[in-house]
Amino acid sequence: MLDIKFIIENKDLVQEGINKKGFKGINLDELISLHQRINSFKTSSQSLREEKNRLSNSIKTASAEDRPAIIAKSKELGEDLKQEEEELANLTEQFNAQMMRMPNLPSPDAPQGKDDTENVVVRKNGEPTKFDFKPLDHVELMEKNNWADMERIAQVCGSRTYAIKNDLAKLELAIHMFVLDKLNEKGFTTITVPSIIKEKPLYAVGYLPFAQDEIYYMQADDVYLSGTAELVLNSLHADEILNESDLPILYAGFSPCFRREAGAAGKDTRGLVRVHQFMKTEQFVICKNDINESEKWHEKMLQISEEILQDLEVPYQVLDVCTGDMGAPKYRQYDLEAWVPSQGVYRETHSASNITDWQARRTNLRYRENADGKVKYAHTLNNTGIATPRALVPLIENHQQADGSVKIPAKLQPYMGGKTVIGGK
Asked: Which residues are within 8 A (CB) of 258 and not within 5 positions of it... i.e. 6 or more apart?
């Protein structure tokens, strides 16, 4: 959420940011008019309330002749006040709905573009893997090594579900333990969070109203299934005023995640790339309201994710995400994509975003400065630690050998009981 005062004082800048992100249907003149009408009704209602209270207080001391007129006038003011309060509530609801649809402004350094075709490759690490044999794709590797039961699980649980087993299941868990240990070493606090979430935190993080079709809703309980630990962690300190000395707060959140993938019909339906339920370790940072500070953490989080892909020994590239592809909450976004040999392309494994104070305003997350005691909204950032089973795709494809076995990267071997190779029997 943006500050309405900032919107009024920087209308042209805000409109430019909206246009860069490609958001339609946002009328700043209407939004500002609503704000002005709300303020006018607040002033008028306050005057009516004060006059009604004055008349009510005077009834006891009024003469018998004057009392009926005072009561009638007080009742009339009460009716007027009720009408104004109803109109005020209606205007406030309209205003809040529009404010909730207001995207964050993109960084002036973010590349301008309409969609993912205009994202900019910042750098590449490693060369695409070459084989001296005909490589298998990840589904073929799973079938060869008895690592999955995709057909049976689809009959039980439906499409875009998965069941992996034996050493591949152990590898999935090993990756998360490895990433959590790395994040602990970087100062992050490990925290496991539920996958069930109320509606309010979804508005706070920006999933609602922007990604309604991606979220599973359980009507009987009026709760949703979370698509990432960020949704929960963003509201963990909602309505609190932290001390500046508490910052930064670093969370390594782990949770099962659920996404409908409603907007991905016909895409990546085979195998492990795009499934409805997955496991994710998320980096989440709360820091001071200082763009230099949050940009520093943005780079740090990106560096951590690059280290993870380097430790997994897979080639990857870093993308500077353009304005039209970064979504409503983002100020600046980098994506990491790992090389998938069977497809001959890089596929996303990580997404690192600086949200500035956009989410904190929606959650009312603040802190008190040490120097002067001034209260400010915090900055929040998020980044993938690792998400599986998607990360398994480039991992096993890049490390496969001619006999169908898969080499285990050195950094993962301690988490696999010292095994250097799995499969291939």
From this structure: 195, 216, 225, 226, 227, 276, 277
